Amino acid sequence: MQPRLVSCVHPKKKGKSQSVTFTFTIESKSVYYIIIAVPSSIQAVKNQTVTEGDNVTLICTASGIPSPTVSWMKFSANQRTYGDVWVFKNISRSEAGEYRCEASNECGDASESASIDVQCKFIMN
What we know:
Immunoglobulin-like, three-stranded mixed β-sheet, mainly beta, five-stranded mixed β-sheet, elongated, 125 residues, 0% helix
C-alpha cells in the first residue's frame, strides 16, 4: 500500500487549536502509513530602507509539512526567483519596490510582502 495524505492539520489560529483523531482497524500482517501534513506558513518579512549601491538580502523563513516550495516575486515586474533568499548586489533605485514571498505545499499557500526603498546615494565633490 502506498502512503497517502490523510489530513491537513492546521496549527493554532487566534488561540484556538484544532485536533484530528484517527481510528484505524488494522488487520494482521498489514502495514498502514499515516501522513499528516501542515500547511505552509511564513514569518513576517521586514521592510528595508537602503542606499543605492548597498548589498541587500531578502530572506523568507517558511515552514510546513511537507516542506513548502518557496519563491520571491516583484509586484511591478514579471520577476521571480525560486528559493527562500533573493540577493541584490550593488542595488539600484530601479530595484526599489514591493516584493512578495510565496510558500506552497499540498495543504495550503502562504505569502508575506515587504518593500525595499532605495535612497539616492549622495556624493560630494
